[in-house]
Model the fold of this input.
Amino acid sequence: MSASIARRRKQLAAKAKLASEGGEDPITDKMNTLLSPDTISEETAYEALQLAQSQVRKSVKSGDYTKASVTYGYDVCMQLLDKHLKASVGSQLLHQLAQVLAETHSVCDEAWIERIQNLDAAYLKAVPNAESKAEQKRLYRLHSKFLKSVIAWSEVLGTVTYGALELHVLAANHAWFLSENGADDEVEAEAAANGTSKGNNKSNNNKEDEDAEDFTTVALQSASVTHYALAEKPDLILSKLATLPPPTAAQTKNNHSCAPAAREALLTRSILVMLTMENIRDATTLLTQYIETIEERKLDALKKSYMAKGDGKSVNHVVFNSMLLSIVRKDKKTGPLYTWLLKGFTGAELATMYKGEMLKGYTSKIGRIFFDIQPPPSMMATLENMMGMMGGGGMGGGAGGMPGMNPAMMQAMMGGMGGGM
Done:
């Protein structure tokens, strides 16, 4: 018998004896010893991280997925984050955990959703203890990637299309928090001046621009309301919109060159996302509550302005969304009415909103779902890819006016628009 075989047998015998006595292996013992004090240094935390990562890989290789994900993934993450407040070290294990959940085909159940909620709370508690504001900013942004990863995992291995609702809420909360704490608006302003803005639709043909993380306020707020819409939380969207200012004269002027008011743009984006999910209920709730609690202008005045050809006002979002929700409740024969409505709104408002091409993809899907309007074959792949990612001029016919249509149809639709929907 060779010396190496003898050593291996001795190691296996020692491991078997340890297991029979209910003990852990030496690596786990050392890791637990490092993490046991009430406070530890960054160096000690990093040493414990390396041991945990080694054990995660070993457990995956041996097929012990529960140990890999729970014992060495979740449990150690909670010690690093909740007990020792080591966000920088803990973030590395968090991302490994997200990879392990997908790699081992772990099912996204209620237990794992609760664990991820605990990890999210512990991480956000730990970040303020980072050594500098710059490091805190980096860690907050890194967390958004973790949340996207677990949403993608929950979509594939959970029971809800586009991911677990609870995880979308976490991502929405975090995106809105980032929009108020560390958005890149100064960087984006400079990019806009140079014509390279990520929100500029002309630059969206560049794959690098599409794939790059966008941490401007408009991007983060748009991501936030999208996640809230996917989470079926119109009340949370409403609470965020209530904090934003009303549109200015420049933002409601006909043929305005600036983007629409954030409050109105986010309202429209939320409703479009909900309708792509065929969620008329929450879209109606959101718009009804918006009109009753946030919108300061009279609905009758907005309706009149929407059809006026000489008042110098652009088409407004409240009336557009009211008409949209009225149309989608009808049968497929109202498809021409939907096409007319979009024709007037797309050039004036959608085209100037953040990632307008993505919004056009939403409207194409809405047309296909409710009215059997098939998008061009060249757009099908783009549309499906856009929906998979959820887990992103002039009016014509006269100054400020809508394109021509049957007045009787228009009056009937307007008549169906009450303040309470």
Remarks:
- The chain is about 65% helix and 0% strand.
- Residues 192-211, 392-410 have pLDDT under 50 and may be disordered.
